[in-house]
Fold these 2 entries.
Entry 1:
Amino acid sequence: MHEDPGRASLPAQRDRHGRPGRLVRAVLLFQIKLAIDGLKDVILSPLAVLAILFDWKRARRGESWESFSRIMDLGERFERWLALYGEPGR
């Protein structure tokens, strides 16, 4: 049977026969990352709405606007840093 190479890199697939402590650590780390990701959503959602309102007001006056783009960039950088589904310990 041919396996998907992307799945083979997942820690759960690679370490199925490893120590139970590694599994517990991976699950705890994933739960912490999920909580941090949720907190990010709670913070960035209202900031994005404010940025849209600010940018809309600036655009109506013919001024440049970039607040929303900055919020989106911030969220993208944070997600790369968090690596929610990445290998623990990387």
Entry 2:
Amino acid sequence: MSNPWPPRITIDPLVIPETQAVPYNDPQTPPPTSPDQQPPAEPGMIPLTVAEIERLFNAVTTRTPSRERTAHWSAWRRRHQARARWFHQRTRLTAAYIQLI
């Protein structure tokens, strides 16, 4: 007897409608330009990664505490990663300035 869990989901490529190409707009703030620059109030979000798409898909197709909580956690994590990236770039910029002196 086969186990029906987890359910196997297949996507028929003939059913998926063709989409028009949409220009990509980077939602992130530009990197820092000086070592003493203050961080932006809103750093934006990093683009969706394959792992994040998988998490969101699993949240929609399986039982989770709540879909709203999952979406909130995803947005928080992506915002946090964008902020961490900005600070990392500023730190590297500081190191580059120190090497020039």
